[in-house]
Design brief:
CATH topology: Rossmann fold
Number of strands: 7
Helix content: 40-55%
Radius of gyration: 16 Å
Number of domains: 1
Structural class: alpha/beta
CATH class: Alpha Beta
Number of helices: 9
Strand content: 15-25%
Shape: globular
CATH superfamily: P-loop containing nucleotide triphosphate hydrolases
Length: 211
């Protein structure tokens, strides 16, 4: 079982969007997937509650305390567990990083998102310093095609954290917001470009032997 966490201490970076769509993509590829909503705000649980009957989406479990998270992971019968994490979580962020095999640090093209990622980077480094394994990378979300700031963030010149940055990025597409509201994924939408962006993330993770 591989445990994938979408994480950043800053709220509004799009962690839930990435988590739900990655989980749905893996689910549609035939894997057994469980989504864990570790955010007390319950965005992923609300997403699943909004799903139409018979929707082709994975199960969602709420676990927004460290002990609940540990129990949910232990009980999960899955190939992949995807964890959607809260902002400014403190002990919860530490518990998620401790459990995760892969940490995708989701950032928007903004200095605030980059700065907010520092606590997560520290948690990743602490885990590595303890001799434990974790693969971690920044994932740029809501990138605009023609803005200087988006290009700067995508190019990675700001990244002096010693953490990888994914080549794959996710654009600022309305289909992601619609899918989240309707309890589905972009694979239920007619937006093939959005679908390709999520598929590219999974392919890049597989090529890196992280999945």
């Amino acid at each position: 079982m591989k445990i994938i966490a979408t994480i950043n201490e800053k709220g509004g970076s799009g962690k839930s969007t990435i988590a739900t769509n990655l989980a749905c993509a893996l689910h549609r590829q035939g894997a057994r997937v469980v989504l864990i909503d570790a955010d007390p705000q319950g965005t992923t649980r609300d997403w699943r509650a909004a799903s139409p009957e018979g929707a082709n989406v994975p199960a969602v479990i709420g676990a927004d305390r460290p002990k609940e998270l540990q129990a949910a992971i232990k009980d999960a019968s899955a190939d992949y567990v995807v964890i959607d994490t809260p902002a400014k979580a403190g002990d919860m962020s530490a518990a998620v990083v401790s459990a995760a095999d892969i940490a995708l640090i989701v950032i928007q093209p903004s200095g605030a998102d980059v700065w907010a990622s520092a606590p997560t980077v520290r948690l990743v480094r602490q885990k590595l310093d303890m001799g434990r394994e974790i693969d971690a990378a920044f994932l740029v979300n809501r990138a605009a095609a023609n803005t200087r700031l988006s290009k700067l963030i995508r190019d990675g010149e700001w990244n002096d954290y010693g953490i990888d940055q994914m080549k794959s990025t996710v654009s600022n597409r309305v289909s992601f917001a619609i899918a989240l509201t309707q309890g589905v994924s972009v694979f239920d939408m007619p937006d093939t470009a959005a679908q390709a962006e999520i598929t590219n993330i999974i392919q890049e993770l597989k090529e890196a032997n992280w999945l």
